[in-house]
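Many introductory courses stop at the sequence. We go one step further.
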Amino acid sequence: MLNILSDFLVRKPEGYYCQYGDFYIDALLPVSIDVVSHGHGDHARPGHTTIYSTAVTAAIMRYRYSQQPQSSYRTIDFQHAFQIGPVQLTFIPAGHILGSAQILMEYKGVRYLYTGDYKLQEDETCERIEIVQADVLITECTFADPEVIHPDPIDEIKKLNDQPFNILLGTYSLGKAQRLTDLINKHCPDRRVLVHHGILPLHRIYDDMGRKKLTYEQYNRREMKVGEPNKVYMVPPMTFNSYIRATKVVRAFASGWKRLQQHNDLSLYISDHVDWNDILFFIKEVKPQEVWTLHGDGRILKQYFEGQLAVRDIFLSL
């Protein structure tokens, strides 16, 4: 019989801590050993003595955190097992953004799978998610609500084809911006993608380390004012919010959050997270004995599986 350790991974102020290997996952405060699932700033922070990640995640962190010592990075390929103390870890593609990894941890015959952020939808700009079986699934719950069902991203991006003006497109700079560029390249071929200077270096990392080349141009103010109204100017959230009174453009923000679609000219529901149906499918395929929830509200998931599967929030340990 499996001996699942209820405190194998706990939530501490620094991040998610595994006492059995004495390491953290996605720590937000400096720690001795941190295992980073992907490059988004709410998961990848500087200041750690040693950082384990995929090569792409390390490249993103090197760009964003130039003061972090180069010697601190330990890059590990997908599917290549490595040890931290007595715990064996393996990075499994998560399909969230380029280089994003689920973290499979094996200890005393029990498999614990930390998803990080993940998605099942098709995305040619990053590695396709791989599903492995585990005894404990530690899953994000960003959209763990039956009212959240993501539409087809191709149908969503094709909305841009119907607009008679240039488009001001708000997007997260890492992952989402590159996915949107690829979707526009493929499904809105008459649209030119202009990229904000804050997004440009991340596009270049994708060009250098990714699965395909993207077609885009650096933003030029004059270009938005002359010629055909066929430009999509891609900007990060703060810049998008500063253009609240922009004229002669269609404002849209690509997100799965309903609140971010308000006050825009066009809704664009494109998310890089799993929705309710995806989470249920993933749990079915992973076949866990227990599900631990984090990064969101897992109460609806717990109610859904009541009497069928043990679901709980990850323990808080101070």
